[in-house]
Design a protein that fits this description.
Layout: H1 3-17, E1 24-29, E2 32-37, H2 41-55, H3 59-70, H4 76-88, H5 92-105, H6 110-122, H7 126-139, H8 144-156, H9 160-173, H10 178-185
Helix pairs in contact: 2-3, 3-4, 4-5, 4-6, 5-6, 6-7, 7-8, 8-9, 9-10
């Protein structure tokens, strides 16, 4: 037998020993199916640890666990959770860097855009908050959270007619969305 045969045989044998990991995977997040990057199984363990740390107010520890959960993968949801923990430390510079990192690869990440809007609103930057909320709504028009937050922001800035129009348009498109209906009635 020739050397190329053994090289080919070795390549086939080694190729069969490694499991193929897809680039993306579907998962349930907040009761909704979302497509995101594949994360190694150890990432889920670190994610659970991070959530537990955050639940107990240990946000610095949570940041470390979220970082391990990401395993170098840029995932909008994980980055949003890590940025939320950073904001609670508070390390707003880290939170903004994490949001920027996520939005650089997924400009329409609804969790990152909602967090950007909340942080901008908290520091009084209504223009950035409104832009982020509109982008979040454009990225996920079926979700109530961006619409409700945008309507609330409009109401806070004395644009009640615009707030009602935003809620009305959403309710027409999703007549069974209870939070939007309640907001419209308030």
């Amino acid at each position: 037998m020739t050397r190329p045969f053994f090289v080919a045989l070795a390549a086939l044998a080694l190729g069969g020993c490694f499991r193929y990991a897809p680039d993306t995977i579907d998962r349930a997040v907040g009761g909704e199916r979302r497509r995101g990057p594949w994360v190694p199984p150890s990432g889920y363990e670190h994610f659970v640890r991070a959530e537990l740390e955050a639940e107990h107010g240990r946000f610095r520890e949570a940041i470390g666990e979220y970082e391990l959960a990401r395993s170098g993968v840029i995932d909008g949801y994980l980055l949003a959770r890590e940025a939320e923990a950073a904001a609670r430390v508070p390390d707003l510079a880290l939170a903004e860097r994490l949001i920027d990192e996520g939005l650089s690869s997924d400009a329409g990440s609804e969790p990152l855009l909602l967090l950007r809007a909340r942080l901008a609103s908290e520091r009084g930057d209504r223009a950035v908050a409104e832009d982020a909320l509109r982008r979040a709504h454009d990225a996920a028009p079926e979700l109530a959270a961006p619409v409700l937050a945008l309507a609330a922001l409009c109401a806070e800035t004395d644009r009640d007619d615009e707030a009602l129009a935003i809620l009305d348009a959403f309710v027409v498109s999703r007549p069974r969305d209870v939070p939007a209906l309640r907001a419209l009635l308030e």
